Amino acid sequence: MAGYAAQARLPHAITLFYSNRDRESAPFLEDLRRLEKTNPNFRVVVTMTATNVPALPWAGETGVIDAAMLRRHLRDVLAPIYYVAGPPAMVGAMQKMLKGLGINNESIRSEDFTGY
């Protein structure tokens, strides 16, 4: 989806919040950074949740995606349509957090991915 948006130069502002345990286990990180450079409407916010002893240093966001992080990076948390994908527990936590912010169900799309 991010690749298509960048390639098609969609006029929509897209912010991807991308969470991983650490930099070493962040697939597509460099691809996403390249997409960010090619489309001024696409931005990626990367966060690492296990930064206690990283093999590669990390100076970006840390911790899970939460309401405070969304507020730091979005002008209006109520405006976007949210697409949430990942392990079922993470998807459920994100849905709960978004609903707690007052995001209505029609503005949340989600998909669970198990087995990784």
Walk me through what this model shows.
With 116 residues, the chain is of the alpha/beta class. It has a single domain, classed as Rossmann fold (3-Layer(aba) Sandwich), CATH 3.40.50. It is built from 4 helices and 5 strands. It starts with a helix and ends with a strand. Strands 1-2-3 form a 3-stranded parallel sheet. A two-stranded parallel sheet has the order 4-5.
Please state the structural category.
alpha/beta
User: Outline, from the CA principal axes?
Assistant: globular
Largest β-sheet summary: 3 strands, parallel
User: Order of helices and strands, N to C?
Assistant: HEHEEHEHE
N-end to C-end Cα span: 20 Å
CATH superfamily: Nucleotide-binding domain of ferredoxin-NADP reductase (FNR) module
Number of structural domains: 1
Low-confidence stretches: none
User: Mean of the pLDDT scores?
Assistant: 90
CATH class: Alpha Beta
Helix share bin: 25-40%
- The spatial strand order of the largest sheet comes to 1-2-3
Looking at the structure, the CATH topology is: Rossmann fold
Rg (C-alpha, Å): 14 Å
Strand content: 15-25%
Assigned CATH architecture: 3-Layer(aba) Sandwich
Number of helices, where a helix is a run of at least 4 consecutive DSSP H or I residues = 4
Count of individual beta strands: 5
